[in-house]
Amino acid sequence: MTLKASELRKMSDEELRDKLTELRSELMRLRAKSRRGTLGKESGVVREVRRDIARILTVLREREIGRRGTSQ
């Protein structure tokens, strides 16, 4: 399931970091399956997981910049 940026923005930083850890381990599992050649119909899932990771990192970075901008 693809995560939407609007859904991610509603989550707390801690929830986002937990989700990021979960997705990174899922990506490692999928890459291992890919190397073994047992990925099958899940081949598009690798791309989806990578994009979800990027979305989470983007939201976290936006928040970091926002906090830094208000403190100056």
Could you explain how this protein is built, in words?
With 72 residues, the chain is mainly α. The chain has a domain at 13-31 and 41-71. It contains 3 helices and no strands. Helix 2 (13-36) runs antiparallel to helix 3 (43-71). The longest helix has 29 residues, at 43-71. It is elongated. The protein starts with a helix and ends with a helix. The model has no long low-confidence stretch (mean pLDDT 91).
Question: Which secondary structure elements does this structure contain, and how are they paired or packed?
Answer:
Blueprint: H1 5-10, H2 13-36, H3 43-71
Task: Describe this protein with a few key phrases.
mainly alpha; 3 helices; elongated
- Our Rg estimate from Cα atoms comes to 15 Å
What is the beta-strand fraction?
A: under 5%
Largest sheet: none
The average pLDDT score comes to 91
Give me the count of strands.
Answer: 0
Overall, the morphology is elongated
Give the topology string: H per helix, E per strand.
HHH
Describe the structure concisely:
This protein is mainly alpha-helical and 72 residues long. 82% of the residues lie in helices and 0% in strands.
